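task queued by scheduler; priority normal; single chain, no ligands, no partner chains; default sampling; output format set to structure tokens
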Amino acid sequence: MGYWLKLYTDVLDDPKYFSLSEKAKLGMYELMLVAKKLENGELTGELPTIEEIAFHTRKPVDDWKEVLPELESIGFVEIKDTSSKIRNYVKRQSAIP
């Protein structure tokens, strides 16, 4: 289990970030925390089911049904039938050379 998550200040200059609702902005960070918590030492950016996301964040599933499509629309997450993941997670969370 990882304890540290890298955040990038360039998000403050990203118009896509500022196009998000307040719920989606917070959801973006919560998804990164969930992915980090569940990665078991291997950087993947994989996300659990929406029900598990709701449990880990202590939010209703309906909130995530609203937020996930918004985050997908800006390219932050990739949602497929059998799995979902945070795009560019591995690149951004890898060790700095």
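post-processing summary
- The mean pLDDT is 93.
- The longest strand covers residues 77-79.
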